[in-house]
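Narrative of accomplishments. A recurring question from our advisory board has been how the design workflow behaves on a single, concrete structure rather than in aggregate. To address it, we present the structure tokens for one chain from the evaluation set, followed by the sequence designed for it. No filtering or post-editing was applied between the two.
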């Protein structure tokens, strides 16, 4: 099964259903269920801004489903979805495109320690079965 590492508090917001768009600078053709992994190093600014003190890191925390991908072409469009992705302002003049992975069916799973990776990565079948 595919797995995607997210920094905290983003992983927590996904598994509790509040964050329904995951913002990335890269696109994906992948659609379907994936495991949500909380990376080892949280985003300290976002943790404080969103009122979190401590969240699990370095482990699987849940799963979700990517149903489609949205490409953002303007700051207005990006900011209009702010309550779905929780990301801060983006400098459209200095950076390239942004993609929003539209998420559904998020759920929390038992925490299982796991080293994360960049982009989507595969977890072995035994680990996938123990998650689901």
């Amino acid at each position: 099964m595919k797995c995607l590492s997210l920094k905290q508090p983003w992983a927590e917001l996904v598994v509790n259903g509040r964050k329904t768009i995951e913002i990335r600078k890269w696109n994906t053709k992948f659609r379907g269920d994936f495991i949500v992994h909380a990376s080892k190093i949280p985003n300290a600014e976002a943790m404080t801004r969103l009122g979190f003190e401590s969240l699990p890191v370095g482990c699987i925390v849940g799963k979700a489903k990517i149903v489609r991908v949205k490409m953002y072409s303007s700051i207005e469009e990006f900011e209009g979805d702010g309550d779905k992705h929780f990301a801060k302002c983006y400098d459209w003049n200095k950076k390239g495109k942004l993609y929003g992975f539209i998420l559904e069916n998020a759920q929390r799973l038992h925490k299982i320690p796991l080293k994360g990776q960049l982009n989507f990565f595969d977890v072995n079948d035994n680990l996938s079965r123990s998650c689901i």
